[in-house]
């Protein structure tokens, strides 16, 4: 058994809305860990992710710290570097589709607006992370991945980005202040900009 911390706590980016991401690597089924508190993977699945060059494998390789080892080894470090990530285009298209689904929902109904904005933030963040991995710059797994791309950063101001982030935190952790109708309206006004940005980046990856 191996237990790791990963994510913001290992990057030194902890704030009031951060949680502690924990990974448990186990043999077969193990009911010792609560899935609400741990990401639980078998050794076989971790090995598959390393072989695939999966973004989560790179996340763990670059941003994890060993907490406990049942055999005094550092399992992830011993795996060395994951294989090259080759699915950037298809992954970015996948997150673009998630964005489009949420955009379509929020434009048709006001019943799930905060949830839809949360899904948009998820799509934007993961899209940007996959983009950084694909173009072989320093991978960015943070909540600010889409704002840390220099000239390729998402073309919305910090206020709008933080509204989307607030929606995500509200939906995943139940923390923070509800977005007002005014704030939701301001975020909705920027969705076409986000869509154009995603399409532009997908076109660049497809060349």
Describe the structure.
The chain is an alpha+beta fold. Helices cover 53% and strands 10% of the residues. Strands 3-2-1-4 form a 4-stranded mixed sheet. The longest helix has 22 residues, at 113-134. The protein is globular. The termini are far apart.
What is the topology?
Elements: E1 2-6, H1 8-11, E2 21-26, E3 39-42, H2 43-52, H3 55-62, E4 64-69, H4 75-79, H5 88-108, H6 113-134, H7 158-173, H8 181-188, H9 191-206
Parallel strand pairs: 2-3
Antiparallel strand pairs: 1-2, 1-4
Helix pairs in contact: 2-3, 5-6, 5-9, 6-7, 6-9, 7-8
What is the CA-atom radius of gyration, in angstroms?
18 Å
On the 0 to 100 scale, the average pLDDT is 92
Low-confidence stretches: none
Structural class: alpha+beta
End-to-end distance: 43 Å
Sheet-strand content, in percent, reads 5-15%
Written as H for each helix and E for each strand, in order along the chain, the element string is: EHEEHHEHHHHHH
Number of helices: 9
Give the overall shape, derived from the CA principal axes.
Answer: globular
Largest sheet report: 4 strands, mixed
Number of strands: 4
- Helix residue percentage: 40-55%
Give the neighbour order of strands across the main sheet: 3-2-1-4
Q: Could you give a quick summary of the protein structure above?
A:
The chain has 207 residues and is an alpha+beta fold.
């Amino acid at each position: 058994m191996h237990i790791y911390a990963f994510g913001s706590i290992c990057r030194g980016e902890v704030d009031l809305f951060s949680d502690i991401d924990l990974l448990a690597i186990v043999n077969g089924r193990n009911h010792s860990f609560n899935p609400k508190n741990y990401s639980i993977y078998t050794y076989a699945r971790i090995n598959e992710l390393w072989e695939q060059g999966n973004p989560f494998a790179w996340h763990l390789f670059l941003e994890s710290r060993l907490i406990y080892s049942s055999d005094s080894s550092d399992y992830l470090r011993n795996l060395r570097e994951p294989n090259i990530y080759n699915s950037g285009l298809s992954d970015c298209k996948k997150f673009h589709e998630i964005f489009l689904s949420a955009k379509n929902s929020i434009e048709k109904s006001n019943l799930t607006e905060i949830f839809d904005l949360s899904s948009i933030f998820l799509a934007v963040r993961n899209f940007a992370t996959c983009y950084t991995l694909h173009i072989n710059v320093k991978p960015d797994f943070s909540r600010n991945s889409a704002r840390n791309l220099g000239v390729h950063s998402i073309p919305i101001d910090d206020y709008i980005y933080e509204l989307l982030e607030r929606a995500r935190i509200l939906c995943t952790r139940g923390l923070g202040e509800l977005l007002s109708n005014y704030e939701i309206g301001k975020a909705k006004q920027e969705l076409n900009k986000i869509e154009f940005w995603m399409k532009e980046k997908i076109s660049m990856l497809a060349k």
